[in-house]
Every structure is written in C-alpha cells, then in structure tokens.
Amino acid sequence: QLLESGGGLVQPGGSLRLSCVATGFIFNNYAMSWVRQAPGKGLEWVSAISGSGGETHYADSVKGRFTITRDNSKNTLYLQMNSLRAEDTAVYYCVKVYNTGWAPFDCWGQGTLVTASS
Amino acid sequence: EIVLTQSPATLSLSPGEGATLSCWASQSVDKYLAWYQQKPGQAPRLLIYGASNRATGIPARFSGSGSGTDFTLTISSLEPEDFAFYYCQQRKSWPITFGQGTRLEIK
Q1: Using CB atoms, which residue from B43, B46, B98 is nearest to A98?
Q2: Cβ contacts (< 8 Å) between B101 and chain A: which residues?
Q3: DSSP codes joined into one string, B36-96
Q4: A100 pLDDT band (50/70/90 cuts)?
Q5: How far apart are alpha carbons A8 and A113 in whole angstroms?
Q6: What is the pLDDT of residues A39-75, one digit of tens each?
Q7: Mean pLDDT of chain A
Q8: For residue A93, which residues of chain B lie inside 8 Å, CB to CB?
Q9: Prior bond to A104 cis, omega within 30?
Q10: How far, in Å, CA of A32 to CA of A71, rounded?
C-alpha cells in the first residue's frame, strides 16, 4: 500500500514536498516513480528512483525544479517540488514498479492534489 | 521521446460486445508496453504488462497483443464495470511515456 501526503495550494514560484509511505512490501527492492494527472487530462510520468536511491530520472518538464529521493529506513519516497508553475497543478501519484526494471506500475497511491495558483 | 498514440479517442459500445483499443508507438518499444484502466476518481490499475501478460487478478476477458510499434488491448465481452479510461505506457526508453487515453463509454 502507498499513502501520499503533502499536497496543497501553493503560489506560483513556491515549493512543496510530497511524501509517500509504503507498506506491505520490501521497499528497497523496488524502483519507485511519481506520476501526475492534471485535471481532466491524461497521465504524465514525472520522476523515477532506483531501489537504492543511486539512480534517478526526470521528465524534461520538471528537470532542474523537482528532486526525487527516498529514505529506505523509513519506507518513504519524497518529491521536492520547487519553482512551481500553474501547469504543475495535478494529482500526484506515488507508484511502485512491478518486479524489476522501471515500469510497469502495479501499485498506486490514492494521489495527492497539488494546486499552484495565486 | 517515444510518442504513444491511442485510437480511438472514444469508443461507444454496449455491455456484452467486444472492444478493441489500439496503441501505436513512434518507434519500436519491443514488448515493453503496458495497459492501465482508470475509473473516475480512482487511481489507475495495471491490466497488462509485457504487451500480453495479464496482471494479478485481471479477468481473462482482457488480453493484449502486439510488439514493436503496434499494440492492441482486447476486451472480449464488456461488463458494466469495464467502462472507463484506458492508457498504454512504454518503458523502452526514457522518458517513460503514456498514450493520451481511450474513453470506453456505454452506448
């Protein structure tokens, strides 16, 4: 199970940190990702991190502004979001990778809404 | 970036009918393609991975086929709970990308 928190209303240019607590599986065995969905729109992959945390990947739309990290001792995934823009407004899902590799995603959190608006 | 194009955008069918959803990749993704189902207000659910493997707990009426650039999700006989949005996704190369989705609606 994955449980996200940290979403909310933030002004453009502001920062927010999302957290995702994982239970029910050996957290450090799996790569994790964040996927977002703008209101009424489709799915967009945002960022991924390896099981050890040593390898990360980002979508071009967030590169240089967002940072993905994990604390395997706390079974927690994070997404630090800086310089937020209106177009970052979306539900952000924490997702677990099925088996090895970087996808597909077999476990999704319930999502946390981030709204960047003045 | 590999672009995934899904067709049709909307599919209107009746319960009991069969459904065929398509996903085309702008370049080969081998068999690194997955399908997801999403109902309003819910997180997506993994249906198919590796182009043709059903995920745990997915009914046998769902099947996937294809490789390279052309993929199909088939639902053999629609149940009322199957009317939802469907997305394909590739993991062949970075960035991971999703198709724009197909809305399967009740006719």
Answers
A1: B46
A2: 42-43
A3: EEE-TTS--EEEEETTTEEPTT--TTEEEEEETTEEEEEESS--GGG-SEEEEEE-SSSSP
A4: confident
A5: 6
A6: 999 999 999 999 999 999 999 999 999 999 999 999 9
A7: 97
A8: 43-44
A9: yes
A10: 12
